Amino acid sequence: MKCRPSLLLALFAWLLTPLGAVAQTADEQFLAARDAARAGDKAKLERLAPTLQAYELAPYVDYWRILLDLKDVDPASVGLFLERNQNTYVAEKLRIDWLRQTGKQQQWEQFDVEYSRLAQPDQSLACYALQSRRARGDSSALDDAMPLWLNLLEPPEPCYPVLEALIIDKRVLADAVWARIRRQFEANKIEAAIYSMNYLPPSQTPDKKLAQTITGKPLPWLLKLPGDFSTNRMQRELAVLAIQRIARNDPRMAAEQLERISPSLQANEKGWAWTQIGRQAAQRHLPEAMAWYRQAGDAPLSDDAAEWKVRAALRAQDWGAVRSTIEKMPPALAAQAAWIYWLGRAYRAGGRLAEADALFARIAGQPDFYGNLASDDLGRAITTPPKAPPPSREQLAQVQANPGVQRALAFFRLGLRSEGVREWNFALRDMSDRELLTASEIALRADIYDRAIVAADRTREEHDYSLRYLAPYGDQVRPAARDQALDDAWVYGLMRQESRFVSSAKSQVGASGLMQLMPATAKWVAQKIGLKDFHPSRVNDTETNLLLGTSYMRLVLEDLDNHPVLASA
Question: How do the domains of the chain map onto residue ranges?
Answer without folding.
Answer: 172-377, 397-468, 488-568
